[in-house]
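[worker-b] picked up task from shared queue
[worker-b] task type: protein-ligand structure
[worker-b] ligand name resolved to thiamine diphosphate; SMILES cross-checked against name lookup, match
[worker-b] sequence length check passed
[worker-b] input payload:
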Amino acid sequence: MKHALSVLVNNQPGVLLRVVSMFSRRAFNIDSLSVGITESPKYSRITIFFSGEVHIVDQMIKQLGKIPDVAAVQLHKPEDAVYRGMTLIKVKSSANNRLDILKIAELFRARVIDVQATTLIFEITGQDEKVLAFTRLLDPYGILEIIRTGQIALERGEQTITSNKKKNSFYGKNML
Amino acid sequence: MHINGARAIIESFKKEGVELIFGYPGGAVLTLYDEIYKTKFPHILTRHEQGAVHAADGYARATGKVGVCIATSGPGATNLITGIATANIDSIPLVCITGQVATPFIGKDSFQEADVCGITSPITKHNYLVRHAKDLPRVLKEAFFIARTGRPGPVVIDVAKDAFAAKIDYVYPDKVKLRGYSGDYPCNEADIDKAVALLQKAQKPVIFAGGGIVSSSTYKSLRKLAASIDIPITSTLMGLGCADPDSSGFLGMAGMHGSYAANMAIMGCDLLLGIGVRFDDRVTGIVSQFAPHASIVHFDIDHAEINKNVNVNLSVVGDLQQSLPLFLQKLAPYTDSIKKNCQAWYKHVVKLKQEHPFSYKEDPEHILAQEAISKISTLAGHDTIVATDVGQHQMWAAQFFKIYTPRNFITSGGLGTMGYGLPAAMGAKLGAPAKTVLLFSGDGSIMMNCQEMATIADYNIDIKIIVIHNSVLGMVTQWQRMFYGKRYSHSLFKSKADIVKIAQAMGIKGYRLEKKDELETLLPKILHEQGPVLIDIIVPEVQDVLPMVPGGKRLDEMVMEGEA
Ligand SMILES: Cc1ncc(C[n+]2csc(CCOP(=O)(O)OP(=O)(O)O)c2C)c(N)n1
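[worker-b] inference finished, payload out:
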């Protein structure tokens, strides 16, 4: 099963290592990882997409919560959250086929961010399936490189990772 | 106070009530050692950094205070690793200060540089790299707080060499402000009500007590609980001393080398109260078949322990100091009825205990380890601290030495670290100088850290070192005998190192006991000698620790008799 987890951590070196080693130690495969700034300079936010059994996920959340530099942990349900990740695709193109390729890109709402005599670079966001379909159509032209950012996730509505934490602060851990 | 970082560390030690530290100097910590010199701060110089960290651990286990040790950068710090991991898995509070190369040299593969925070991350409760002296007061305050509160554990502070030297205006914070850690673990009253209700319905309850009772100092509540409703208690290795070993309801240790009665009680009970335990695989047998007929209630401070190894029916998360007295209080109106419900079971279990005590076949000619340990147990006072190394002798000490109070049994339970015993015993004696301290070691284990005998002689640390000398790596040979067709691959010592002479060479009196009658004639006298003594007791090579639950078996599938 796939899971999306957000971890709010103190903005300090070494924290990322502690968080990621929790996953590697339990032989969880991380599908994607993203780290970045938040609304507060005190914190960084790590978003991890990974696969694993539900009961181990529960264990993982508790173990992560114990790290003193972890301020809050949130498991996202697909229906309650929005996910985003960006993909850049470099494809071969010449004057002959450039318009065809751009038409496909338009259908997928992919943006052109670089045009060279022999190549194009597209930026596309959205669901895995959409990206996959797009790359399939580009494949015949010759894809040179694909790169993806880690996905990020945000709860819908007024619920935030910090409000989630206050609910769990019952055990005296991770009070904000 | 305008002082340097090193002095700031010493001042912080004083503020935290640190009375004694253990360590070993080197380039990166010279400034710190200079301040130790100037302030005459009490410090024990061991002969190896591993000795220092285990000694700090033994000190912490014996006193309940935070153990402190110091090592230099690179090899000094890496020599601490086994000791940090040992403390971490047994939840022992330590603060380890390691020197790091000076800030401009970090990350350049400088002389004696090692990434200490990287290496220790998975085996510490928390760690810090301090580059600026101004951060030291806050970091020390936080480190001691994190080490001792909640579920205790080791904290490493890696300090860059130049941070020891830089001057700061020292102010020790009086509070910690941590965004991700509060150190406060209240329990939920409703959970306790549910636990009371479960006990009211139970007919065959058992208490399964662990090291959490030691670290929370709640053994009195535990004993009250057991006595108020006649509920049998078994304990883990780490929980020994929590129950009164002379009480009729104490069944002894459970698990791989646990007592027959303890293991059968777990397999037969209908309610298991796990208190301050983590359901380690050495104690559960095959985990899916642990307490198969029971509702399991788990009291623990660490919510990550709930459902980690064993799925429980009810969890009472929180500090035992709060949850146990509340449980007792809420239970009080029902004790008589519960007692009545559980009478038959209690009698049954106590009978099992009487019928199947820990036992061994006497040997008319040779001293047996079990016999020597039992004998020493009867000779020792109730308030004796027993430290052990790892192997057969450790299990026999757990089985045959009666431990009357918590903090009196000092053993590496979770990591099983050979070489732990000698330095830990040393630290324990320094922490509890009024108590007699005994060490049971093996002829394998004693050699891993035997250099600390020199430390013991230096400071005249009065411990009695008892080496159960079977000339083999006993526990390894037992497994090879049982599961590897008696192929004793590299578990028999070829040379006969003279351990008595090693002791003498390091400045400790040494004696050898070989004849059976010497247990009566010599042993009591030697144990009463002043100052450190090593007693080398020669025992047969082939002996099994029994009962034994082989790996992957249920707790009631104990092997009761061996070949030896
Ligand atoms: C540092 C370390 N290395 C290896 C082991 C594996 N091991 C467990 S018990 C044991 C034998 C211990 O021999 P000894 O100290 O003589 O005790 P005995 O079992 O003979 O009583 C070994 C090698 C260990 N626990 N720790």
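[worker-b] attaching auto-annotations
[worker-b] Strands of chain A lie at 2-10, 29-37, 43-51, 70-76, 81-84, 86-92, 111-115, 119-125, 143-148, 152-155.
[worker-b] releasing lock
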